[in-house]
Design brief:
The chain is an alpha/beta fold. The protein is built from 10 helices and 13 strands. Helix 1 packs across helix 5 and helix 6 packs parallel to helix 10. The protein is globular. 42% of the residues are buried. It holds the Pfam family DUF1731. Belongs to the NAD(P)-dependent epimerase/dehydratase family. SDR39U1 subfamily. InterPro entries: DUF1731, Epimerase_deHydtase, NAD(P)-bd_dom_sf, SDR39U1.
């Protein structure tokens, strides 16, 4: 099987490759299949077992891609949403996905593509499953366009799975950026802490991606979040506990809005998201509890 992976050097991509390289018994292990990493430029830190391709060289690839795992995308929360930044976020998600579809000579059998719970927009009210109507706004518009570009692969030959990700917790990613403030005792509830915090352990993200590739029952859109509903202040308390630090120092909403502008809504607002379709699918979460998830991450840090 030939697997094309975008975002191979990102947080989720690295975790996925680490799992496939360490677990030789997995059906998708590197020893059993060929992995092509889609990169902007050749990366010296990627394993020699992985063949690197760019958007320029992808159309020349003779091998038929069986699976496209689409993890690429600039970090939506790393910079304020200026018009320039919004364009970059769109390019790295929608434009790239469209370009891959146009470049492949043959349609893949499976496409697993990321989206985000930002699809549901900014809201504190109601519970959102995959069928709930979203709120409008930039995050929703971006995710909607991203999902549409992935769904364009869908045909009688191609099964498409889209995961709307919550905050991915692991050794890296968002948690790594929060770690130092919490270690110094400066972590605490954001904007009162009553907004909902939809999260997922990195190992469950990798498990869900691999399940989508190997199990043909997976199709369509899924919320990839843990089943436990927690508020942001509960997360702060659990993370402080995992680090052995207090989590009392609040961060006011006005300060975040001053620093981040429109993007602050990702931190100050948060709807209740439930993984209705994953649970119906019988997905077995390895880390359904926030306290145990954070303790495991810190124990292995």
């Amino acid at each position: 099987m030939n697997i094309l992976l975008s975002g191979a050097t990102g947080f989720i991509g690295q975790s996925l490759l680490e799992t496939l390289s360490q677990n030789s018994s997995h059906p998708l292990s590197l020893g059993n299949h060929k992995i092509y990493a889609l990169v902007r430029a050749i990366k010296p830190n990627l394993s020699a077992d992985i063949t690197q391709v760019t958007l320029d060289t992808l159309p020349n690839l003779d091998a038929k891609i069986d699976v496209f795992i689409n993890l690429a995308g600039e970090n939506i929360a790393s910079k304020p949403w200026t018009e320039k930044r919004k364009h970059e976020l769109h390019e790295s998600r929608v434009t790239l996905t469209d370009a891959v579809r146009a470049s492949l000579k043959h349609p893949p059998s499976v496409v697993v593509s990321m989206s985000a719970i930002g699809f549901y927009g900014v809201s504190k009210d109601g519970i959102f499953d995959e069928d709930t109507l979203p709120e409008s706004g930039f995050a929703h518009d971006l995710c909607k366009a991203w999902e549409a570009s992935a769904k364009a692969f869908e045909s009688a030959q191609t099964r498409v799975v889209i995961y709307r990700l919550g905050v991915v917790l692991g050794k890296g990613g968002a948690l790594e950026k929060m770690r130092l403030p919490f270690k110094l005792g400066g972590g605490g509830p954001i904007a009162g802490g009553d907004q909902w915090f939809a999260w997922i352990h990195i190992q469950d993200v990798v498990k869900a991606i691999l399940s989508a590739v190997t199990d043909s029952d997976y199709q369509g859109v899924y919320n990839l979040v843990a089943p436990q509903l927690v508020k942001q202040k509960d997360f702060a308390k659990a993370y402080g506990s995992a680090l052995g630090r207090p989590a009392l120092l609040p961060t006011p909403k006005w300060l975040l809005t001053l620093i981040f502008g429109e993007m602050a809504s990702l931190l100050t607002e948060g709807p209740q998201i439930i993984p209705k379709r994953l649970e119906k699918q019988g997905f077995d979460f390895s880390y359904p509890d926030i306290a145990l998830a954070l303790q495991q991450i810190e124990h292995n840090h």
